[in-house]
């Protein structure tokens, strides 16, 4: 039997252990039932459960949640539309999210998959320039090409925003 403060009682009968736990107002918890003789410990079970719950919530706070964002493309995407989607991709990577890149083919576009694959590779290259890491290479699934990218472990340093120079107001004397 082990006390609540780590004190060793040695081998004690079950009746004696119950009496000691009642005298101290503590619970008798069986720690190791398979040991010969079984090991029991005196403790306040309510406090123990509370500490366990607090410890679990602290660990949950420290976890980093990574979302997977999806960005869809088409093989004939315009330059400006592509720039808008690249800005969004940079924003997602900056927040630490993973990105699922998806290029979807429709109708006659399926006959010219090589054009879409080339465009998709250039998109991946532009995202890699932003400091991303390819987590799964591009693969063709039906009428779609899919790839996963995530932020690099070492995030690029953010550039400081340049402030415009202050202009001094000159009062005209008249």
Give structural notes:
With 174 residues, this protein is α+β, with helices and mostly antiparallel strands. It has 2 domains: 14-60, Roll (Ubiquitin-like (UB roll)); 68-151, Translation Initiation Factor IF3. It is built from 4 helices and 6 strands, in the order αββαβαβαββ. The chain has helices spanning 14-24, 45-62, 79-94, 113-129; strands spanning 27-32, 39-43, 68-73, 98-104, 132-141, 144-151. The strands form 2 sheets. It has a 4-stranded mixed beta sheet, covered by helices on one side. Strands 1-2 form a two-stranded antiparallel ribbon. The protein is rod-shaped, with a radius of gyration of 32 Å. The protein starts with 13 loop residues before the first helix and ends in a 23-residue tail after the last strand. The relative contact order is 0.10. Residues 156-164 have low confidence and may be disordered.
CATH architectural category of the largest domain = 2-Layer Sandwich
Percent of residues in β-strands: 15-25%
Largest sheet: 4 strands, mixed
Shape: rod-shaped
Summed up, the helix count is 4
Question: Short summary of the structure?
Answer:
36% of the residues lie in helices and 24% in strands.
List keywords for this structure.
174 residues, alpha+beta, Ubiquitin-like (UB roll), Translation Initiation Factor IF3, 2 domains, four-stranded mixed β-sheet, two-stranded antiparallel sheet, 4 helices, 6 strands, 36% helix
